[in-house]
Design brief:
The chain has 6 helices and no strands. The chain has 134 residues and is mainly α. The radius of gyration is 16 Å and the shape is elongated.
């Protein structure tokens, strides 16, 4: 089965939804080895992830028209990686956080370069929501 960006975007949205669900339940994320200082922070992050999940899943339905939403998700993934990898390795949040951060980095790279490649649009076109060339 060939790689399709729309499927990747859809499943990364499902992944975000799963993470949101986990972060709503402190006993669950603690059992997995995540140490979030207060449940409120987990719930706040869960809300953010739920929103991005909806954006990704809906964007996957018409990726050429909604690619900019996905493209702008990439910097969010990079920031998550910048925070989670050092916090997981050097802080007390848990090593799982570093693995999640590495996953965010990889997903962000796929968004950044995969969208441009599959849709045949420049990075500027994606960043500034310029539609496909007719």
């Amino acid at each position: 089965m060939p790689f399709r960006m729309s499927q990747f975007v859809f499943w990364s949205g499902v992944y975000n939804a799963g993470l949101a669900g986990i972060l709503l339940c402190p006993p669950v994320y603690r059992a997995l080895g995540l140490n979030i200082c207060s449940p409120v922070w987990g719930w706040l992050i869960a809300g953010f992830l739920a929103f991005t999940s909806a954006v990704l899943i809906l964007s996957a339905r018409d990726l050429p028209a909604r690619a900019s939403f996905v493209y702008w998700e990439a910097p969010l993934r990079y920031v998550a990686a910048l925070v989670l990898i050092p916090a997981g390795l050097l802080g007390d949040i848990g090593v799982l956080a570093a693995l999640l951060g590495l996953g965010d980095l990889l997903i962000g790279l796929v968004y950044t370069f995969g969208l441009s490649n599959e849709l045949g649009r420049s990075h500027a076109d994606l960043a500034f929501d310029r539609g496909p060339k007719s």
